[in-house]
Structures are given as structure tokens and as C-alpha cells.
Amino acid sequence: MREASPRQGILPVLRPNVKGISLIIVAVVCFAAFDSLTKWVGTTVPLEMVIWFRYLFQTTLTAGVLLPIRGRAVFMTRRPYLQVIRGMLLVLVSVFAFLSLKYLPVAEFTAIAMITPLVITLLATILIGEEVSVQRWMLLLGGFIGALMVVRPGGQQFGWPMLLPLGFVIANATFQLVTSQLAKVDHAGTTHLYTGAVGALVMSLAVPFGWQTNIPWQWWLVLVVMGSCSSLGHFLLIKAYSHAPVAVLTPYLYGQIGFAMLGGWLLFSHVPDLWALVGISIVACSGVLGTCTSARMKLSAAVGDPAG
């Protein structure tokens, strides 16, 4: 019998991860665009209306696409309680993101939010039992230090709005872990539909308190674009976690920083100051090096496994 070459053993291991990585890169582009547009539209449209429309749009779009294809099967879930929790967590993520972007530039907010992978790693280790190497711990710590350079506690630019992204980080880290668990048992479309429905229901109770009737039609068009970016991004996020584990995909979340800087420059002509740029660079480099570490470990495991 012909013996399989190492390359033949490696490819089946890497192929699902490559697909997951590709999906999450496109997802973070959508998220960066959504954040930039959120800051822009937040100058005119109330928070309640923005978040309500975002979930209503997601629910309507998802149902319109999936119901003709999957029928009532789209509502079948093995973890209904997790679906509700995921939807409520995403509402919290949206609220903290909106409030943060109201006071902070897009790139700086994104850099602070990038300590989310550190929290995810901590939670994944404690709750799921995922093994994390010493090298990845050091790189994630580097990302945390970079985020502190952006925040600069005690500096002249530090104020209470800098604390808002911390609420975002905690809610988002929990949301990501719940997403990874649901990806193992439920269809991506089912999870996407339930998340939008829960968010729309919760925000329908809040939107009457912030409704405005004199908003120009151009802003409604921006809301549609925002809804499209958010819906596509979260759908791709779910699909990504169905192809690769949290530890592999997490470093690629750092790529959102670069796209956020681009969005901040295009829409607001904002360029981070020197210290912020250094901190952002450290966060980004930690993410890239973390990715290389994960890939090297996967390759070593594939080559060293006789069954591969």
C-alpha cells in the first residue's frame, strides 16, 4: 500500500481552518464598516432606533432568505436557551458599542475592544477546557498591553467613556463563546434568525422611548447599509466557527483594527496619535504572531500524527 505523504496528511487538517479564517476576515471587514457607520449615524439617529432597526432588518432579511429554502426546519434548535442568551448578549454588545463610538474614535475603540481575545481565551480555558500554549498567552498579553497604551489610564485623554468598551469586551467575549458552542449543534441560519428575533423583540420594547419622526430619508438608507453589514458579518462569524475552533480564529479578530482605522480616516479624517498608533501596532502584531503560532502548531501536529 502506498504511504501517504506528509502534505497529503496536512491538507485535510488545514482546509477547514483556511475556510474558517477566510470567512472571519470578511466578517471583520463588515464589522469595521458597521462600527464606522454607527459612529456616523449616531450623530443624528437615537440609539434605540439604530439598534432596533439593525435587528429588525436582520430578522426580516434572514427569514426572507431561509424560509423558502429550509421551511419550518429553520426554527429547529437543540439549544433554545442558548439562542435566547446569544440574542440578549448581542443586544448588550450593540448598546456598549454604540455608546463607546459616540465618544471614542473608531480605531481607538476597536483597539480597546481587541482585548476581547484575551477574555475569550480565559473563558475558553475555564469553561470549555481548551489548551492554550505559553506562547499564545504571551502574545495575548502583548495585545492587552497595547490596548492599555491606547487607553492610557491616568493620562489627559482618559475619561469615563474609555470604560464603556470594557462592558463591550465582557459581553462580546461571552457572545463569541456561546456562538462557538451553538455552531456545533445548530444550523448557522437558525442561530442567525433567532439572534435577530430576540434582539428585535427586546429593542421593540425600548424603541418607543427614543423614536423620532423627522429623520431624513438618507439616514434610513445608511441604516439599511448598516443592517446589511451587520447581518452578513454575524452570519459569516457563525459559519467561521463551524469550520475552525476558537483558538485558531481568535487572532484574526485583530484584523478589524486596520479596517477600523481606514473607516475612521475616510469618514472622519481621524488619524490616531503616536501613542495610540504604537498601542494599535502592538495589538495587531500580537494577533499576527498569534496566528503564526497557531498555524505552526497545527502543521506540527499534522506532520507528527502517523494517522494523518
Protein described:
With 308 residues, this protein is mostly helical. Helix content is 76%, strand content 0%. The protein has helices at 6-41, 47-70, 80-103, 106-113, 116-128, 134-151, 164-182, 188-206, 217-241, 246-249, 256-268, 274-304. Helix 1 packs parallel to helix 11, helix 2 runs antiparallel to helix 8 (188-206) and helix 2 (47-70) packs across helix 9 (217-241). The chain is globular and about 50 Å long. The relative contact order is 0.22. Residues 1-13 have low confidence and may be disordered.
Task: Report the count of strand segments.
Answer: 0
Please state the average pLDDT score.
78
Content-based structural category: mainly alpha
Cα shape: globular
Helix content: over 70%
Q: Biggest β-sheet, characterized? A: none
**Beta-sheet strand percentage?**
under 5%
Q: What order do the SSEs take from the amino end to the carboxyl end, as H and E?
A: HHHHHHHHHHHH
- Chain oligomer state: single chain
Compute the number of helices. 12
Distance between the termini: 15 Å
What value does the Rg take, in angstroms?
20 Å
* Parts with pLDDT < 50 across at least 5 consecutive residues: 1-13
